[in-house]
Structure formats: C-alpha cells, structure tokens
Write a structure and sequence with these properties.
Chain lengths: 226, 226
C-alpha cells in the first residue's frame, strides 16, 4: 500500500472529523452567547503573559474562562489561576496542537451561565494549530517582535486566518534589528483586514487598545444574531 | 472504523518508515565522512542567524553544505547562499517538520567529495521536528533566551534528544526577566550531557566557543571508526 496516499487520506479524514466537532463546539459557544477565541503563537511569544495582563483589565465587566493547551506541564494554567479565573489545562502529551475534540471534552467543566469570553491558549507552535478549527469565533496571533520581521511571510497560513495579531515585546524594539514597518506591511499584504496591536506585556504599553477592541468584540458577539 | 486507532497506526507506520530512510541517510553521511547535524528551534530563535555567523568562522578549514527547511519561502536559503556555501532549499508546502525522505531527495545535489559538515536547518518549530530522525549524527537546539526560562521544561522532548543547545540573543538578557540559572538548570535536569553555549549572534559574543566545539565534533567524527 502507498503510505503517502494513506497519510493524505487519513489527514483529510482527521481534518474533516475535527471540523465536524468544531461546528458542535461553535454551536455550544453561540448558544451560551460566549465569544471563544483561539490564541496562537510560537513558544515564548508571550501568549500567557498577554492573558495575565489582559484578565485584570477585562474582569471588571466580562466573565472569562480559560483553556490552556500545553504539551506536558500546567505551568501556564498555574499562572492564570492566580487571577481567580476558571481555567482548565489540556495536556496534549506530545501533540503539537489542540483539536476540537480535546476542547469539547473540557467544556462541561465551565459554568456557561457566567462565561462571556472563552480564551483558548493553544500549544506554542506557529504552524500546526493553524490547521485545526476548535470552534472559536476567531483566531488571535501573538508574535514576539524579537522573532524577526520575516515571520509573517514565512508563516502566512496563520496570518491569513486570524482576525487580530498582537505584536508583543515592543519594549525590546530599540535593542533589535526588527523593521516594524516591513513586518506590518507583510502582515497586511497577507491579510488586509487583520487588526494589528503593538504591545509590551512587560511595561503595559499598547495593552489598552487591545483590551478595548476585545471588549467590543465580546459585546458585538452578544448582540449579533445567530 | 475507529479513526483514533487508524491515526495511531498510520503515525507508527510513518515514523518507522521515516526511521528506515533515516538509517539510509545516516549510512550515506558515514560513507562520505560527513558530519550531519539537525538544527531545531522555534520561529525566530536565530537558527539562520547562527548559521550566517558560524559559516565564515568555519569555512577556512571545513567544507560545508546546508539544507534549509522552510514551509514556503526561500528567504533563509538566500541568506545562506551569499556565503558561497552549497545550499539546497526544501519547502515542505505547509508541513511542520522535515522528514528523512525529503532530505534523501536532495542529497544527490551536493558534492560529497567536498563536504565535511552538512547543516540541516529544520522548519521553525520546537515540537514536531523532535520526532523525525533525518539521519543526522546529532541534533542542535537554538533557543532564544527571550522566549523565557520556562521553555526547556515545557518542551522537554527536544532537549532530551539533542547534543547541544545554543542559547541565543544573550545581548537582550538585561532587558528581559529571564533567569539564566533556572534555564540552564532545567536543561541539565532533562539532559545532563548536553553542551550549553550562551551566544549573541548580534554582537558575536560566545560564538567562538560554539564554533570550536563544532570544529572538534567534525574532526572526531572523521576520525571515528564506522
């Protein structure tokens, strides 16, 4: 048997099975008027740091739940739990991305009468998570500017499929060779409709614009018709 | 049919087929007395930058070939080609890692009478490449310290399987909250035999120790018995 052909066939089945479960998850979020977002980025881009900074600013008016995807540890979930937000850890046990079935299994753990926003932090990986719909309303990329301005062109799939990108670690801009204009032009060339936020989770600059935008997204999701 | 069971079965077949081809590649490198290394790291860790800085220091005494793994672009290969080193680009077309078959296909492109060291730069990804043996003598990790000191514990598989780790972007240490002692302790807890190099590709600090070590590895490979 041709192993390549079998691999392609199984991958297609996997994705279509993932998509079916993703639609079930999406209907669940819609039913409970909960905006679900899928946060994707490389290891160390600052996904968890962004959540740590975002939660206190959002919590006054929005009820939040968090799903933390990780390969082995619960380090990220521990960092989120101190903010007294309901958080569930998913360990993929080596797997390089979350899938919709993993997410569906933990949904019963949350109180859906009191969740306006579900933040799903994916495994640290800029490649594989792009292919797996979890049932989210949209994807958000976190990209550390220290990774370099060539990254959008090198990893276009995820930029094409995201609604917003948070360019993090702006406090390090002057100490690196990154060309922010090139980076932003490349992002917009791939996806002209994407929202771009320049943020430093370390010194807090730029966070308010991101938080205001996300708050509006939660509200407009609640007001939108099914 | 149970799709999970099929997935596991196909993954096992894939890995074992990959391992068989990896052994063929390994025999090829051995026959030609060429040390092959598999360089792995997150997007933006500085894999290509490390090569750019390493090549001029090595080229005086070592003949080098480079295989550049990338998802879509030839940006990295273009950066390497200016050093007048034979370089072949492999585009995975969306794939998140190189495999041994992709590598085997480009091997005929090199002059094996004049290649002492084959550097294979993998796709930017700290997860998936860890599972796929390419036939290399050993793996080298490039980790940007800006990614944070929790990364070794969160991505242990690759640290367990590597012979050396280059901790890059040391010039940014004072501008971040990274705890280098914690990071190094975590790395050594996972793999007590790993070589650790602290390097700044930007200002050149620490490069000489890495280059000297790699030069010795090339020599001892050539002198080692089959």
């Amino acid at each position: 048997m041709d192993s390549n052909r079998r691999e392609i066939e199984v991958m297609a089945n996997l994705l279509s099975s993932n998509d079916r479960q993703a639609e079930v998850n999406r209907a669940h979020f819609r039913k409970h008027n909960c905006l679900a977002i899928n946060v994707i980025g490389s290891p160390g881009a600052g996904k968890t740091s962004l959540l740590e900074k975002t939660l206190p600013l959002l919590l006054m008016e929005i009820h939040i739940g968090v799903i933390e995807g990780d390969i082995f540890t619960s380090k990220d979930a521990d960092r989120i739990a101190v903010h007294e937000v309901p958080v569930i850890q998913i360990n993929t046990g080596g797997g390089c991305h979350l899938d919709s079935k993993m997410v569906s299994k933990v949904l019963p753990e949350f109180n859906w009468q009191a969740t306006d926003l579900m933040i799903i932090e994916n495994v640290g990986n800029l490649v594989c998570p792009a292919d797996f719909d979890l049932g989210e309303a949209f994807k958000v990329i976190v990209l550390s500017i220290v990774e370099g301005d060539d990254k959008p062109a090198k990893y276009p799939v995820i930029f094409r499929n995201a609604k917003a990108v948070v360019l993090n670690k702006m406090d390090l801009e002057t100490f690196t060779d990154v060309n922010m204009e090139n980076m932003k032009q490349d992002i917009l060339a791939i996806n002209p409709d994407i929202q771009i936020f320049e943020v430093s989770c370390r010194n807090g600059k730029g966070l308010q614009a991101w938080v205001s935008w996300l708050t509006e997204e939660v509200k407009s999701y609640r007001e939108s018709k099914v």
